[in-house]
Specification:
With 531 residues, the chain is an alpha+beta fold. It has helices at residues 6-26, 32-35, 43-46, 62-83, 108-116, 129-145, 151-156, 171-177, 201-208, 211-215, 282-294, 331-343, 360-414, 420-449, 454-486, 490-521; strands at residues 40-41, 48-55, 89-93, 97-103, 121-125, 193-196, 221-225, 237-243, 248-249, 253-260, 274-280, 300-304, 307-310, 322-325, 350-358, 417-418. 53% of the residues lie in helices and 16% in strands. The two termini are 32 Å apart.
């Protein structure tokens, strides 16, 4: 019985690998463990969004800065994984930049907000009524005395009644022109909160972010707006006066889960509404119990990134280390909030450099263009080889088909994504694979013209052309390695596809095609070779 040679075994493995990883593309209803191996499409083919971020490491040491970038990448990856985006690409660019590609995502604003959110969670006691009034009076007095340092407020205080700004009828404008400050005349829906009209919200938000304005806020207190009501576009906001001391922080949190309140619940903030259930660590539970015991009948604000999400009233001491965040948000917002709380704070602030959105239509057009380019290139090579090298050219074309299949199978196996540069790499691989066969066939022709038999010519052609093929392919492989190591994004995709194609083309030219010629073309004492 004839034993398998190393060449036969390697060809069997080669064909099995191609069949295993490409079967899910053609055969439906495969087992889940098999069907999960599918070829991924990159952002330029599938559509989605790409965000380039820069990490602010100004106040960190070199070691801490490097660690902060790596930790931010980990946190962003955890958030995206929980957000449900399939096959995200997250990688470091240079020293401080992070590239995030989200193929197939359609909730662009939600994904971007989730990535950029710093997630500074604090629990702060809301100031009582008298303290809140005193804080507001002091702020109004200080701002009124220095109103010229706030251009927008100074414009509202101008005496020229023909100005469009002066004719503004918002509550803040009326309060300033009446000489009573900026907050004193606002309505108070609660003990320690003030109602801000929708038209005044941008101005108030800008003031709260102003460092000079913050100097006028008395020590031990801070002002914060509540969360915007996404369901009502022009809803008023509440301004809270809080004690600046943080009673608990995100570090005291163990777990956050989005839940949906029962319709029969007696709590109107929970009944048939989404909310976030919090579970504290052991130390956090002790702190929470102490805070609630010391502040009965007061309100405890849950503040995320400087925005009050909810401020429930403390009725009694709460033990057990559990709490809830209720507020005006949808189930999607509650889910995203739980993700941010679970993954923790970013280790250093990040800012977006650029955001690119690729529509599904553009991705579809790119796929069509890439397919058309590949088909035209393949047909041109196929016809040339068939006409010029006859039967041997047909065999080379068969090897070329399996080489393309090998490239796609390896991309699937490695979990890489097929992109437009990757398609360009495949097309280039087609030309390089044929180049190896051309070198071999031309050498075989020379041996046949010198009078050698087909068997001898075949052996001599492969042996003498192999050295040249190895030299050319290895130099190209070195170039691909350099591109992959120093390149980013599309360049790395091109380099990876090219490298896989080099290995495939060498195997197909030196092993696969030769085996076919040995087994089916040169048989017995045949005197001629169709080449």
């Amino acid at each position: 019985m004839k034993k398998f040679s190393w060449r036969g075994i390697s060809i069997i493995i080669f064909l099995c690998v191609i069949a295993y990883f490409l079967a899910p593309l053609a055969v439906p209803n495969l087992p889940e463990w098999w069907a999960k191996h599918t070829l991924k499409l990159g952002l330029d083919l599938r559509g989605g969004m790409q965000i380039l971020l820069e990490v602010d490491t100004t106040n960190l040491s070199e070691t801490d800065a490097r660690n902060a970038v790596e930790q931010n990448i980990r946190i962003i990856r955890e958030r995206i994984d929980q957000f449900g985006v399939a096959e995200p690409i997250i990688q470091k660019l240079g020293e401080r930049r992070i590239l995030v590609q989200l193929p197939g995502v359609d909730n662009f604003s939600g994904a971007e907000a989730l990535i950029k959110q710093t997630a500074m969670l604090d629990f702060k006691v809301v100031a009582d009524r008298s303290a809140a009034e005193q804080v507001i009076k002091l702020i109004d007095a200080m701002v009124s005395a220095n109103i010229s340092q706030f251009p927008k407020l100074a414009a509202l205080d101008a005496k020229d009644k023909s100005s469009k700004t002066v004719n503004d009828t918002t509550a803040v404008a009326d309060s300033i022109r009446a000489g009573s400050g900026i907050f004193s005349s606002l309505t108070r829906p609660g003990e320690s909160e003030y109602s801000i009209q929708y038209s005044d919200v941008p101005l108030v938000r800008e003031l709260l972010a102003d460092s000079l304005f913050q100097q006028f806020v008395p020590n031990g207190y801070q002002l914060a707006l509540d969360k915007a009501d996404e369901a009502t576009q022009r809803a008023d906001r509440s301004l809270f006066v809080l004690q600046s001391n943080s009673e608990l922080s995100g570090g005291d949190l163990s777990k956050a889960i989005m839940e949906y309140g029962s319709p029969s619940s007696t709590d109107p903030n929970v009944a048939n509404k989404p909310y976030v259930s919090l579970e504290f660590t052991r130390d956090g539970a002790r702190k929470f119990e102490s805070v609630t015991a010391n502040n009965v009948d007061k309100r405890l604000a849950i503040v995320l990134d400087g925005v009050v999400y909810s401020a429930p009233n403390i009725r009694e001491r709460i033990s057990g280390g559990r709490a809830q965040i209720t507020g005006r948000f949808s189930s999607q917002e509650a889910h995203e909030l739980s993700i941010v709380l679970n993954t923790g704070n970013l280790k250093a602030p990040i800012s977006p450099i650029s955001t690119v959105i690729v529509g599904a239509t553009l991705g579809s057009d790119s796929i069509k263009s890439g397919k058309m380019a590949g088909i035209i290139g393949f047909l041109a090579v196929f016809l040339f080889m068939l006409v010029y090298y006859k039967m041997s050219g047909l065999i080379a074309n068969i090897g070329l088909i399996f080489n393309i299949g090998f490239v796609l199978a390896m991309l699937t196996a490695f979990g890489a994504s097929l992109t437009l540069p990757g398609i360009a790499g495949i097309i280039l691989t087609i030309g390089m694979a044929v180049d190896a066969n051309v070198l071999i066939y031309e050498r075989i022709r020379e041996e046949l013209e010198s009078g050698k038999s087909p068997h001898s010519a075949l052996d001599a052609g492969y042996n003498r052309a192999a050295i040249t093929i190895w030299d050319s392919q290895i130099t190209t492989l070195i170039a691909a390695a350099v591109l992959y190591n120093f390149g980013t994004g599309p360049i790395r995709g091109f380099a990876l596809t090219l490298a896989i194609g080099i290995f495939g083309s060498m195997f197909c030219a030196l092993v696969f095609v030769r085996s076919i010629i040995d087994s089916f073309v040169i048989v017995g004492t045949k005197k001629t070779l169709s080449i």
